[in-house]
């Protein structure tokens, strides 16, 4: 009889911070750029070069720690983690082992209505390594040091997660907290948020943990979910076959849906940590910590409550809008310009999400100005354009961020509100469609819809539907 197993999962989440310059030098952290152009003697590990700590890195790390209910280590320091990889220019990484900046935190997740705290063991600051680029034709490997020295925080959870769904809920919660803080854009596809999964299995009810493996190369939530399910099955198959799970680091290949052993897992002593002699300890005063705490934004959970109270939006709308800080910012900025909250929500939930999905883009890359959405909503409200023309204009606003008023003027899209001119057109349509008139008179009120459609067609969609309905009804009722 097969035994019941449960997974035990802890995460190490690396987040690239949104500073303009690197952690220990003044080089740019911008994503992309020709290889090795965002570099200097410090971030390429030249002998004699000395690091200088970027204060903003400490403030971002502190902000994330406070937002995840951590204790802040007010006297912390950097250590050297010694190892050789070709993309690691100094042959050591400056990190934090003994006194990480944040400890003993937690975040609450919600999976299918079940709330649960995931504990955070620590958050520490460190520098990123460079990047190896493998040439498939020649077999050569080239190194790009642009990423070397980009500031990271590593968020280390306790092994509190028991399923892929809990892992995704935890990662989404972390990502939103960090995005709301402005500490990182957390784009998994660009590597600014990366998760390593430590996973073991054990029989349900067992107290001891099984042997864990670490899964790397996970750059999307889908890949993380697939990797967890794949590794869980692999470990259970080994145990059921009477074999042992080996503690090791494995690389996930999402295309093949399988993982491969990379190396046996090192322990802290293998890295020969010691305090970095070139960097002084960091002293975080109460005043500095209070200043960072006072600058914390309104987070998603607080926003959701306020949107319900202030704007009385449906829960579904609130979930979608607050699920992206960028979308929430557009929503609030458009309302601040005088637009009705539900009307703004409708445009974001409907046309914006539709165009985002059609374009296969990230919601955070939406680039139209709130002023242009507010103007479009106002033009529809004032009957300057009808809603179907509004959708056509919005597509241009979404793609090119054009001024809707100028576009409507230039393309002659203003609504026809002149009752006299419309009446002449409608009388002609009524005369040409005796069958619809007959149907209307026979009590088939839907027949008026066909006549409205013909009018809209004749006016190239520019007629005001309300006025068209009014004139049609008057004409038909008087016949």
UniProtKB/TrEMBL annotation:
<dbReference type="Pfam" id="PF02637">
    <property type="entry name" value="GatB_Yqey"/>
</dbReference>
<dbReference type="InterPro" id="IPR004413">
    <property type="entry name" value="GatB"/>
</dbReference>
<keyword id="KW-0808">Transferase</keyword>
<dbReference type="InterPro" id="IPR017958">
    <property type="entry name" value="Gln-tRNA_amidoTrfase_suB_CS"/>
</dbReference>
<dbReference type="GO" id="GO:0016740">
    <property type="term" value="F:transferase activity"/>
</dbReference>
<dbReference type="Pfam" id="PF02934">
    <property type="entry name" value="GatB_N"/>
</dbReference>
<dbReference type="InterPro" id="IPR023168">
    <property type="entry name" value="GatB_Yqey_C_2"/>
</dbReference>
<protein>
    <recommendedName>
        <fullName>Aspartyl/glutamyl-tRNA(Asn/Gln) amidotransferase subunit B</fullName>
        <ecNumber>6.3.5.-</ecNumber>
    </recommendedName>
</protein>
<feature type="domain" description="Asn/Gln amidotransferase">
    <location>
        <begin position="329"/>
        <end position="476"/>
    </location>
</feature>
<dbReference type="InterPro" id="IPR042114">
    <property type="entry name" value="GatB_C_1"/>
</dbReference>
<dbReference type="GO" id="GO:0006412">
    <property type="term" value="P:translation"/>
</dbReference>
<comment type="similarity">
    <text>Belongs to the GatB/GatE family. GatB subfamily.</text>
</comment>
<keyword id="KW-0436">Ligase</keyword>
<comment type="function">
    <text>Allows the formation of correctly charged Asn-tRNA(Asn) or Gln-tRNA(Gln) through the transamidation of misacylated Asp-tRNA(Asn) or Glu-tRNA(Gln) in organisms which lack either or both of asparaginyl-tRNA or glutaminyl-tRNA synthetases. The reaction takes place in the presence of glutamine and ATP through an activated phospho-Asp-tRNA(Asn) or phospho-Glu-tRNA(Gln).</text>
</comment>
<dbReference type="InterPro" id="IPR006075">
    <property type="entry name" value="Asn/Gln-tRNA_Trfase_suB/E_cat"/>
</dbReference>
<dbReference type="InterPro" id="IPR003789">
    <property type="entry name" value="Asn/Gln_tRNA_amidoTrase-B-like"/>
</dbReference>
<comment type="subunit">
    <text>Heterotrimer of A, B and C subunits.</text>
</comment>
<dbReference type="GO" id="GO:0070681">
    <property type="term" value="P:glutaminyl-tRNAGln biosynthesis via transamidation"/>
</dbReference>
<keyword id="KW-0547">Nucleotide-binding</keyword>
<dbReference type="InterPro" id="IPR017959">
    <property type="entry name" value="Asn/Gln-tRNA_amidoTrfase_suB/E"/>
</dbReference>
<keyword id="KW-0648">Protein biosynthesis</keyword>
<keyword id="KW-0067">ATP-binding</keyword>
<dbReference type="InterPro" id="IPR014746">
    <property type="entry name" value="Gln_synth/guanido_kin_cat_dom"/>
</dbReference>
<dbReference type="InterPro" id="IPR018027">
    <property type="entry name" value="Asn/Gln_amidotransferase"/>
</dbReference>
<dbReference type="GO" id="GO:0050567">
    <property type="term" value="F:glutaminyl-tRNA synthase (glutamine-hydrolyzing) activity"/>
</dbReference>
<dbReference type="GO" id="GO:0005524">
    <property type="term" value="F:ATP binding"/>
</dbReference>
């Amino acid at each position: 009889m097969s035994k019941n197993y449960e997974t035990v999962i802890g995460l190490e989440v690396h987040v690239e911070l949104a500073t303009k310059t690197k952690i220990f030098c003044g080089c740019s952290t911008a994503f992309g750029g020709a290889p090795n152009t965002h570099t200097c003697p410090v971030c390429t590990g030249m002998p004699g070069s000395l690091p200088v700590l970027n204060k903003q890195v400490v403030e971002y790390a502190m902000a994330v720690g406070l937002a995840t209910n951590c204790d802040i280590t007010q006297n912390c320091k950097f250590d050297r983690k010694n190892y050789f990889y070709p993309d690691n220019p100094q042959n050591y990484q400056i990190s934090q082992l003994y006194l990480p900046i944040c400890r003993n935190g937690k975040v609450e997740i919600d999976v299918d209505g079940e709330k649960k705290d995931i504990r955070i063991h620590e958050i520490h600051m460190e520098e990123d390594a460079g990047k190896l680029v493998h040439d498939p034709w020649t077999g050569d490997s080239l190194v790009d040091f642009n990423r070397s020295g980009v500031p990271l925080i590593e968020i280390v959870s306790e092994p509190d997660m028991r399923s892929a769904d809990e892992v995704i809920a935890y990662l989404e919660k972390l990502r939103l907290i960090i995005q709301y803080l402005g500490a990182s854009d957390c784009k998994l596809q660009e590597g600014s948020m990366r998760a390593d999964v430590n996973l073991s299995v054990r029989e349900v009810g067992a107290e001891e943990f099984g042997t864990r493996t670490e899964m790397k190369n996970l750059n999307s939530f889908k890949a993380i979910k697939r990797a967890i399910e794949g590794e869980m099955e692999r470990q259970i198959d080994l145990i059921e076959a009477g074999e042992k799970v080996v503690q090791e680091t494995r690389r996930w290949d999402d295309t093949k849906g399988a993982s491969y052993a990379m190396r046996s897992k090192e322990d802290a002593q293998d890295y020969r940590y010691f305090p970095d002699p070139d960097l002084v300890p960091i002293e975080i005063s109460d005043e500095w910590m209070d200043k960072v705490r006072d600058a914390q934004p309104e987070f998603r959970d607080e926003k959701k409550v306020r949107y319900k109270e202030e704007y009385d939006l449906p829960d579904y709308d609130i979930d979608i809008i607050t699920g992206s800080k960028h979308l929430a910012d557009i929503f609030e900025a458009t309302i601040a310009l005088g637009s009705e909250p539900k009307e703004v929500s409708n445009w974001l939930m409907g046309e914006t999400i539709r165009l985002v999905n059609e374009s296969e883009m990230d919601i955070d890359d939406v680039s139209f100005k709130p002023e242009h959405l507010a103007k479009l909503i106002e033009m529809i409200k004032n009957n300057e354009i009808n809603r179907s023309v509004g959708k056509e204009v919005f597509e241009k606003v979404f793609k090119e961020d054009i001024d809707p008023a100028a576009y409507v003027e230039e393309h002659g899209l203003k609504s026809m509100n002149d009752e006299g001119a419309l009446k002449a057109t409608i009388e002609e349509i009524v005369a040409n469609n005796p069958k619809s008139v007959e149907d209307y008179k026979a009590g088939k009120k839907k027949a008026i819809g066909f006549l409205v459609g013909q009018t809209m067609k004749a006016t190239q969609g520019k007629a005001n539907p309300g006025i068209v309905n009014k004139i049609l009804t008057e004409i038909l009722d008087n016949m």
